[in-house]
Recover the amino acids of this structure.
């Protein structure tokens, strides 16, 4: 059965805690003269869910990033050496003055995720495709970087005795 718990759930819990705390603080301070509501210009961060892997045949690297509701034009992908960086922003499409939320669990703001690529990933051939809210980045893995099986040769016993 597939593991349904994200590998970085500890860090996601920290981001969730910050978001929840910000919401409580904003609600608590909204009645004060100086207000507690954050403006659209306030920089917030979140970490979109990611899965990255090399195919079973070892020939292609994949990195999938969950970015529902984010315009792909707001996403930047950079490769430098063996590092892949994905950054962007999910912009708020409403003001909290327009509605009184019963639940508000969608994270808004800027994000940046950086990964060390496996050895042999050809960064010159990285491609990216956005479909159904998922950004998929792929690149071939050089054959030289793939593990190869090394055969163990044996010497017949008769040759060992003659020597």
């Amino acid at each position: 059965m597939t593991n349904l718990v994200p590998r970085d759930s500890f860090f996601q819990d920290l981001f969730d805690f910050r978001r929840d705390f910000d919401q409580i603080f904003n609600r608590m301070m909204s009645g004060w003269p100086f207000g507690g509501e954050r403006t659209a210009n306030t920089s917030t961060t979140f970490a979109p869910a990611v899965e990255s892997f090399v195919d079973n045949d070892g020939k292609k690297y994949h990195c999938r990033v969950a970015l529902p509701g984010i315009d792909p034009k707001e996403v930047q992908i950079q490769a430098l050496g063996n590092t892949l960086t994905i950054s962007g922003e999910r912009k708020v499409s409403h003001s909290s003055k327009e509605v009184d939320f019963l639940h508000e669990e969608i994270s808004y703001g800027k994000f940046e995720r950086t990964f060390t690529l496996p050895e042999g990933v050809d960064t010159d051939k990285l491609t990216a495709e956005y479909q159904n809210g998922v950004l998929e980045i792929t690149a071939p893995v050089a054959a030289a970087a793939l593990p190869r099986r090394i055969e163990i040769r044996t010497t017949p016993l008769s040759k060992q005795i003659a020597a």
User: Anything to note?
Assistant: Residues 40-144 form a domain with the Immunoglobulin-like fold (CATH 2.60.40.790). Confidence is low (pLDDT under 50) at residues 1-6, 33-43. Residues 9-29 form the longest helix (21 residues).
